[in-house]
Amino acid sequence: SPYFFSSHQDFIEACQRVKKLNLNIEGHLGPNFKERRLDQAAYFGVSSCHESITQEEALQKLSRGMTVIVREGSAAKNLVESLGGIKEKVKDTRKFVLGPDDLEVMDIFHRGEIDHCLRLAVDAGIHPLEALQMATINSAQHFGLEDRLGSVTPGRYADLVLLEDLEEFKVAMVISAGEVVYADHEIKYDPVPIQVPDFCLNSFKLNRKLSAEDFKFRVEGSARKAQVRVIEAVDGQITSFYRNEFLDIKHGEIKIDLERDILKIAVVERYQGEGRCSKGFIRSFGLKRGAIATSVAHDEHNIIVVGANDQDLAFAVNEIARLQGGLVAVDGGEVKGRVKLPVAGLMANVSAEQLYQDVSSLHRAVKELGSSLESPFMTLSFICLPVPELKIDKNGLLDVYRNTYVDPVIDLFD
């Protein structure tokens, strides 16, 4: 989506090739896409968007013929805001699709996935049958698959889900490929183990261990205060706010401020082996000590870390590299919780039940470090994503509205 800011020629040509193949161009149009930019997106052939945070944004995209994929994830809770009262403004809901987006394993266990979206949609005033359309035929039609999927009709493939009711959408039975695979609250088949290709393993190439020095903000001269740019994360959303704050300088180093919840954040490139590190300041994570890091960092999936001291920032990054991917919480040079993600640094190779236990334990460790975020690692994973307002990636701090990299330090004062 940043390409729309400059009408990048390569992107335009890519859109043209996709249209010639009669394929969909799916949009990632954040709040920075206002009237003119939405017009540009529609002109280039963007057919949908799953980034609407407000109902106004959803209606603007709908008015340009786009399918609105209504999102409800662990760190992107937008369904109620998007659909609440929508029937007063839109009579035909066939251009709306339900999409759970990124979900924590704990949310899947406790709330469900698409069934959770269905319940929320009905609570927001959508008729149950219209909600079911949003979860089935609307999706199939948007992707041009309605001749094969999306309805229980002759000549189409369909895994059948039998529901107990149209309010809670509790699943009574699932039939797949003609076989009953779930009934009486039990799975009726043995899952086939997945063989992970070798190229998906050992994907981290860091030629050196990082040290505390990599995360320090050194300044020259006698300045005692620094004006800095701060990312303000938002619990339950993937967007952030752009803040200016003042921090103390001691012994030539800009210091964080735990009382104001201003921590350090950094992204470490993990594919080329250089150990390149960009860093900045962030608030809202609430850590009073230690650090947390993850190799799930949209969309390049480098290592991203936030912490209350430089030693633990370095230790957390090195631990992620040692694990060849995962999530960690550390304190005082000790691992307090970890989840291994050896498959490309993105996926686990354990059962869902084991993963649930591992992630639950990790979240407890993060809370002990001081964070009150509902989904700290999911929130952290989106701090690299170039949607408004201020984000960070391997190249530095990104002002998304201006589509330019900016220095974390604005000015120094004696």
From TrEMBL:
Residues 245-402 form the Adenine deaminase C-terminal domain. It holds the Pfam family Adenine_deam_C. GO terms for molecular function: adenine deaminase activity. Its EC number is 3.5.4.2. Coiled coil: none annotated. It catalyses: adenine + H2O + H(+) = hypoxanthine + NH4(+). Residues 91-181 form the Amidohydrolase-related domain. Keywords: Hydrolase. Belongs to the metallo-dependent hydrolases superfamily. Adenine deaminase family. This is adenine deaminase.
